[in-house]
Amino acid sequence: MIKFRSIKTTLSKGVTVPSLIFIAGICLLSAIYPKLTENLLNTVKDFIFVNLNYVYVWSVTIYVLFLVYLMFSKYGNIRLGRNDSKPAYSFFSWISMLFAAGMGIGLMYFSVAEPMQHYSNEVFSGNTAIQRAKDAQLYTFFHWGIHAWAIYGIVGLSLAYFAYRYRLPLSLRSCFYPLLKDKIKGTWGNTIDIFALCSTFFGITTTLGFGVVQINSGLETLGVLPGSSFIYQVLIVGVLVSLSIISAVSGVDKGVRILSNINIVSVVVLLLFVLALGPTVYLIGSFTEGIGNYINNFFSLTFNTHVYEAETQPWFYDWTILYWAWWISWSPYVGLFIAKISKGRTIREFIAAVLIIPTLFNFIWMSVFGNSAIWFDVNIADGALSQLASNPDALMFRFLEYLPLTEIISFLVIAIIIIFFVTSADSGMFVMNSIATKNARISPKWQTVGWGFLLAVLALMLLNAGGLNALQSMTLITALPFSVIILLFIVSLVKALAIDQKYYERDFSATTIPWSGESWRQRLKQIVSFNDKKSVIRYIDTTVKEAFYELQQEFAKNNIDATINSYEKPQRIEIEIKHDVVNNFVYGVKNETRVVSDYLLNEENLPDVDDSQTHFPKSYFGDAREGYDVQLFTKNELISDVLKHYERFIEIIVEKRNEMFISSNANRRLE
Prior knowledge:
By secondary structure, this protein is mainly alpha-helical. The protein has helices at residues 13-32, 34-51, 53-72, 91-102, 105-110, 113-120, 129-144, 146-164, 177-180, 187-221, 230-250, 252-277, 280-296, 298-303, 313-340, 347-379, 384-387, 392-400, 406-436, 445-465, 468-505, 520-527, 533-557, 598-601, 635-653, 659-662, and strands spanning 562-567, 572-577, 585-595, 613-621.
């Protein structure tokens, strides 16, 4: 008899099943009734943009101001993880990955198209050509600058903080822990994750659909493909999604990181080529002036709703509000991915990098390509590029015809778009699987393949039926409720950070007793000597162990079960009191080394030092607070020191306001 084994899966039914039903329903409606669905969704979208645009304006403004405040506040030094956490990726790889996931294909699609569309828009036709060029750059900076990355930054920071600091699952539901507590494990949490999964899927599907169209257009322009029929789009999607699946299955550490590094290098090469062979002096000057113009107009742009300028309001809805909605709808996906790769960074480092570095690169990129296109249009093309402004799929490749080595550079552009496509898709598969499994650590590879297959099938179905615009409208509509959800993330962060700061600043009780004057001769000898490894281990095996065992016996008399744990590498011993609800209490002593200064090696007024390293016994605690040298403690003083920390521990856990910080699954040790 053939035995069938049940398929192993880590998918959460409460999240995956409702999400797939909703995704399939919307995609089928968009494919079967594309015009009807598009008109219906556009009506809803237009109502939101016209009547509720202030929600987006105020929300995005609050995101920016909050992150700037946080970066310069006392909370900036808090690490996204334990206090001793180290970043998992190099700075270059980290920036490359968050940049590729955050902007990706959009940079290639809009770098020429958006400045040209602003420049040629009838709304600004009354201005001079110079003023239109300045406005085109200013609004492009505004839409691709700090505001966009602030949206991603808030979501990514919230996820990383609660996942790595509170040790909750890397899931949007975790960002509500201070507000919902354990309810995040039930229906409320599932609802939040369903929303995130659907929003992520819609955003990636529409973006990849438009990316396929641009790749097809480029290959047609270069004569590689004879046309842009559906069969060629099927071929392109098949190849690219296959590459994306291979990259995603290999994991973030390999496929995603390597492709992101390759892409950022390729993008810089293309940027330098256009800068060097385009109108170089004009580009450098316009970039410099554009930065100043952006800074001078930052607040007026931020708060401007164009309510006094009725003729520009349609443009405002179609560009600024659409962009804010688009970035917000993408934020669950980008935020989850940024959080995944940001463990170990400080809050200040995270915000500074996420806000400033990609923004600055976007400004340089948009200046070089957008201003080059405008310059060519005025001085060489005689308005030919302006006439193509409404056809962004082909505009980039037409622009490249005014540069040397057109064919080679066009192929490089297609290669970059392909890699952006793959990095967006593979990180998207990773994120969707993470949401659908409630951040399961290890999932079967068929699940990743399944998400890639679903992306490919639905994107092609919508491309063929002309339903991508309807799905894009659906994506933009979901941004309204999520903009409010992100505001609640800020409330959660404020509450959690205040408790976090107080937790680590809590000092000992005023009743604790400092050193006595006993054994002062022995202490003096220890102060001026340098210990070797054997003497420290002997101290741990005798004084520390005796103190801990004596404490264990006394705890037992008070009906408290204390465990003594010993480890070899590094040599250490600890006393632990386990709890089911709150954090375990841990006080340990380990062998640590420090390098002796070269100046002291030959110092005559100190004992001889045989080695450049000295050893000392250092305390450590279960909540990763910084320990200290305990080599001068006698057995009784060591017992007293443990009790000081235990008294502090008891004082903290009995206070209700600390409940969410101490009861967040922190007993699970992180590697």
